[in-house]
Design goal:
With 308 residues, the protein is an all-beta fold. The chain is built from one helix and 22 strands.
Amino acid sequence: MLISVILWAGCVKLSAQQGYTYVVDEEFVHYENIFIRVEGLVLTESNQIVVSAHWHPLSGHRGIVRLYPTGDFDNSFGTPSSLGGGGALFRVPGGYMRFNNTPGKHDELGQPYPGFNFYFANNFPTNPPPDAMALFPLPDGRFYVSGRIYLDSLGNKAHLVRMMPNGSVDTTFTPRVVNAPLSGKTSHMMFYDDERIMVGGNFNTFEDHVSPHMVRVFLDGSVDTTFTSEFVERYFTSARYVDDQGRIMITDPAGGFASHPEDTVLVMRVLPDGREDTTFHHLEIEGGTTAQNSYWWPAVIGVVPEDD
């Protein structure tokens, strides 16, 4: 299977995959009101494009917009609102969810979803604020939020919470915590299969299970102890794709495994139990650094399987 990767880097050169030709579709209309970048994009069943982006201040846009398949603006969708711009975008039952530090929800027409109120946006101590990092919707409309969520005025916190479709707390779910380090947090989620999700972030132990940077949990939040990562305990990493053999493609493995301490490994594959898949030629770059204080910090932000 060929794997395409999406890179963000200061100075990276990769040769194009032989046999593939990528050209600009000159018939597609470039919508000029995007100010800085697109951060979320969903294709509808009719091939329209719902976009979450940082908009030009004079555009009048604040939330999400919809474009026709040609790229032309669809003025029947959305409305200027106080929901802000940018963030990841998800299709959910009854509409769309957008995540930019705080979850927002829109109906099928792009309007603010009636009755949606994210509980932790209004019920947390002023100091410190919640440090949410990712949103992960479930098929039934409930959704997980990972990061560092402060639960009361004493600063007690959770790193994985589950919410109801209207933004209230799912009281049937026990909030889960990172045990070490104290500054650790979860930052990325994706399905492993129908019953488990991969949770990545900056942590060494999750619910007392030692598994640096990445852990596999059941939908009730309990840890799947059959998975233990072998990462060097340094910084974030994320699961991006699971193949039909249960192998996990990961990006930015934060110094890699103990067997690969180099700072420039950007894509690796691990086996279903968390061990490195040594049959996969991991992707490195020459030059650059993953130092956290470096502005030009090379990173892979997406992995997509090709048809073959």
